[in-house]
Amino acid sequence: MNLCIAAPNFNTVTETFIRDHVRSLAPGATSLLCQDACGTEQFGCPVLAGIESWTPPTSLKQRVINAVRVRWRRYVDPNLSAADRLRVVAFLKTSNTKVLLAEYGPMGCLLARACEEAEVPLYVHFHGYDASYLIRNSHQVRHYGALFRSASGIIVPSVFLANKLRDIGCPSFKLHVNPCGVDPERFRPSNRLSKRVVAVGRLVEKKAPHLTIEAFAKVVQRFPDAQLDLVGDGELEGRCRTLIQKHGLGERVHIHGAQGPDFIASLLREASLFVQHSVSASDGDAEGLPVAILEAMASALPIVSTKHAGIPEAVVHNVTGRLVEEYDVDGMAAAISELFDHPELAERMGAAGRKRVLGRFTHKKAKDQLRAIMGFNSSLIEVTDLA
To answer: How far, in Å, CA of 196 to CA of 125, rounded?
Structure first.
């Protein structure tokens, strides 16, 4: 084996990008490290599960205990316990791991010392909350500092997140921007059913689905036959359903819950445009670069979204869609209405979006760049075909 991929789990519905890494970066030469083994059987890879999780200390009691451990030189934080570290080191050696890719910053922190002991280069792929929300925690920033020193490379999906990590001390020469890619064969151009709007994302604060519904309610005043499909679940579902009822949108807005990529692809194939009102959450959580937006662009849909995080790095305002300020519900409603009024403009923007994905954001391009970042070549990979 050559590549080990570490993640909290490999079965989260929305984390298709992690499963893509397992299947495509080094097929036949991959092992997995995780805290929860549920779902790993789908890959047929060697797995070491049950490694302990870690969260930054928040209470005074935790901080005092940690301070005592520092004094007595027993404080190894946030690395694995000694027993788990020995398990991981043995697993990396027996699986002949040449490179370890840790999904999310905290997972990289957890495994950094084990990688050093096993003499395995560590690359850490940040995705969003770990480079926005978590950097408000001073303990996490301190541990990230140690991670930046020991890791061979830090990977992010957007320049926006790269700047966030650079601001807390990550050396520029270790930072690599590599957006997640999509499969343009799975996400084919839409049949463009009239006034069919799709939004895909967890129903959480940074995705602001309630603001999407508020904007759509204004659109329906002019276009009573419009339809909005929301894909996702989360703590704001109740608020969303209350808004749907308040605005009398029961027959116009449909919440489908969390769904897999095939369902999403089929929905996008019938849509006329894609919306996502992403915002910076009150706790600092922010997007990286939402994969759902790239999937919609691959489906030749114009995008109506916000000037948030890495979104403007994919969506070119007035070329592949319209971008409004965060919380500008009226602006979002106006942008949707404009594209309903001018279907030929929507079609041109959608075509430009697919062209942009084909040139910059394909699964193959992301995969090849990630391999190059980690130094994969014929001397490291022990399989003959990585296509």
So the answer is: 35
The predicted-structure confidence for 230-241, as pLDDT tens digits, reads as follows: 999 999 999 999
**Domain-by-domain residue ranges, the chain?**
3-181+363-373, 196-360
- Nearest CA to 23 out of 298, 359, 363, 262 is that of 363
Question: What sign does the dihedral 213-219-224-225 (CA atoms) show?
Answer: negative
Tokens of residue 184, six digits: 């343009």
State the sign of the Cα–Cα–Cα–Cα dihedral 278, 280, 281, 285. Answer: positive
Q: Once rounded to an integer, what is the mean pLDDT over residues 268-291?
A: 96
Around Cβ 202, how many Cβ atoms within 10 Å?
A: 18
Q: What is the overall mean pLDDT for the chain?
A: 91
Q: Please state which CATH class domain 3-181+363-373 belongs to.
A: alpha beta
In the structure encoding, which two tokens stand for residue 101, read together?
């890719």
Give the pair of three-digit tokens for residue 325: 């300020």
Give the three-class secondary structure for 327: coil
| Number of other residues whose CB lies within 10 A of the CB of residue 20 | 19
CATH class belonging to 196-360 = alpha beta
Distance, in Å, from the CA atom of 55 to the CA atom of 365, rounded to the nearest integer, reads 34
Q: Which token pair is 115? A: 């990688």
Q: Answer whether 303's CB lies under 8 Å from 334's CB.
A: no
DSSP one-letter code for 48: E
Which pTM value belongs to this model?
Answer: 0.88
